[in-house]
Specification:
The complex is a heterodimer.
Chain A: E1 14-18, H1 25-33, E2 44-45, E3 48-49, H2 55-61, E4 65-68, H3 80-91, H4 96-109, H5 125-138, E5 143-147, H6 155-172, E6 175-179, H7 183-189, E7 192-197, E8 200-206, H8 216-223, H9 230-235
Helix pairs in contact in A: 3-4, 3-5, 4-5, 5-6
Chain B: H1 2-21, H2 29-39, H3 44-66, H4 75-113, H5 116-122, H6 127-164, H7 170-179, H8 183-209, H9 214-248
Helix pairs in contact in B: 1-6, 2-6, 3-4, 3-6, 4-6, 4-7, 4-8, 4-9, 6-7, 6-8, 8-9
The chains are: A alpha/beta, B mainly alpha.
Chain lengths: ~240, ~250
């Protein structure tokens, strides 16, 4: 699915990964955090070759990388606070007070301090996404991966999440890779935009220059313009 | 056939990873306790109901089959032997295979399709140790415990029938139960229950973990877990009966 993709992320930089459905954007993120293993080639995260890494190496790498899932992936059987504390507890590096403090700070940062005792099922879609972000931020990673952070949200809630992501970048200085289809979101969040097409990057440049990209496939995506008929799209395996 | 062998290999690998995680089970004590409650305490009402009626039916059937050949004062012996060796562990396992196995597969399957298992992995929490180990350990420990309850209540169910329907004095049934009791019957039954517990926990976890395809996939995983647990319980019952009574005890 991915072929010869190479992406360097500078410290504090936010890269938006664009592309049509099924082009491998989420798969790319999953390679970075070890949810999918590469059949060939190499994957390096913070200088560590993780292509065939053992569990101990992944545990080390995952202390520096956190992921925000498309559906938030909150644990239904736990409260919001327990969701955020789980990863910290498992690291066994922090005392109870330190964990409680980090949970409180993370929830305050996403504007949901009063939801700590609530169950995820009692929250709206936007709130669940923000708790997902708080859970990732509480781990204080060097790299944050966002998989479709605004999908399924109304425009106003999307804007809240976009502003939150932007604010976290400024306040925490964390590097981020954001997978999205949403052009408004991409322009607002991204320092740099990368577009994936048929397993390869066909655009890699500043967010504000993408509409003038030389590749017609990039401009068509940005303008939301398709040259395909519905029949052609279906026969090409589109979704 | 190839798919069956591949699944057998995958289940063996999962079992290996569970066993490898045993030394770390202290870290998951909270999860293990929670699962023990779910498997044991929460299953008791159903097991109680099944056990009482199993004992009662066994007493009725025993009386029907012994009549005219063997004195009916031996009904208690028949009920006690049947329950301790066979009916207690097997029926408890089948009931739990349905209730607990389905619940484990549905819970883990939902966690799989909603990326909760992936989320655990990204937080460097090993999903097999955090999710499967507590469930398998809880079923292995709690199945024998609820089988003891089932055995006792089934024998009691037989006593009710002997007293009310067959008109036996209560002490006759009690004496028959006591005089023919052999500890190895109980031990073999409880050994079977522990193995059946492991099978139920492992099958529920295996099918839950490999769920794909949303709600439909969760439903399919649940059905597969229950069917596989029940078949394995019955097959292993035969294997263990030979092993326990001909070799070990």
């Amino acid at each position: 699915m991915l072929d010869g993709v190479d992406l360097d992320v500078a410290a504090g930089e936010t890269i938006v990964l664009l592309g049509r459905s099924g082009t491998g954007k989420s798969v790319f993120l999953k390679h970075v955090i070890g949810l999918v293993r590469a059949d060939a080639g190499t994957v390096e995260v913070f200088g560590t070759d993780v292509t065939r890494a053992d569990d101990a190496t992944w545990d080390r790498v995952r202390r520096d990388v956190a992921m925000v899932f498309q559906g938030a992936a909150l644990f239904d059987s736990m409260t919001v606070a327990e969701n955020i504390a789980l990863g910290l507890k498992h690291q066994r590096r922090f005392g109870r007070d330190e964990i409680a403090g980090r949970v409180e700070r993370a929830l305050t940062m996403v504007g949901l301090a009063d939801t700590a005792p609530a169950r995820p099922s009692a929250l709206s879609g936007g709130m669940r996404k923000r708790v997902g972000i708080a859970r990732a931020v509480a781990l204080e990673p060097r790299l944050l991966l966002y998989d479709e952070p605004t999908s399924g949200l109304d425009p106003v809630t999307s804007d809240v999440v976009n502003r939150l992501i932007r604010r976290l970048q400024k306040e925490l200085g964390v590097s981020s890779i954001v997978v999205t289809h949403d052009m408004a979101s991409a322009r607002f969040i991204g320092d740099r935009i990368v577009m994936l097409h048929e397993g390869r990057f066909i655009y890699d440049g500043p967010a504000d220059a993408i509409q003038h990209a030389p590749d017609d496939r990039v401009r068509r995506f940005v303008e939301g313009r398709s040259d395909e008929t519905v029949e052609g799209f279906a026969s090409a395996g589109g979704t | 056939m190839l798919a069956f062998l591949a699944d057998t290999g995958r289940v063996s690998l999962l079992l290996g990873r569970v066993l490898a995680g045993l030394p770390t089970c202290g870290r998951y004590a909270g999860e293990i306790t929670k699962q023990m409650y779910e498997v044991g305490v929460a299953s008791l009402p159903l097991v109680i109901l099944v056990a009482i009626f199993t004992g009662a039916v066994t007493a009725v059937q025993a009386a029907y089959q012994l009549e005219g050949m063997v004195p009916l004062r031996y009904v208690g012996s028949v009920v006690q032997k049947s329950v301790l060796i066979e009916l207690g562990p097997v029926l408890t396992a089948l009931v739990c295979g349905g209730r607990v196995g389905a619940s484990i597969a549905a819970e883990l399957g939902t966690m799989r399709v909603t990326e909760q298992i992936d989320a655990l992995e990204t937080m460097a929490i090993p999903p097999v140790r955090y999710l499967v180990l507590p469930r398998v350990l809880a079923t292995v420990v709690m199945l024998p415990v609820i089988t003891v309850f089932a055995d006792f209540l089934a024998v009691f169910g037989g006593w009710v029938v002997a007293y009310l329907a067959l008109g036996q004095p209560g002490t006759v049934y009690y004496e028959a139960v006591r005089n023919t009791f052999e500890p190895r019957d109980l031990y073999s039954g409880l050994t079977k229950a522990a193995v059946f517990g492991g099978v139920i926990g492992l099958m529920g976890s295996f099918y839950g973990f490999r769920t794909e395809g949303g709600a439909e996939g969760v439903g399919r995983a649940t059905t597969q877990a229950v069917v596989a647990s029940c078949i394995l319980v019955l097959v292993l019952d035969y294997v263990l009966a030979n092993l326990l009574f001909r070799v070990i005890f």
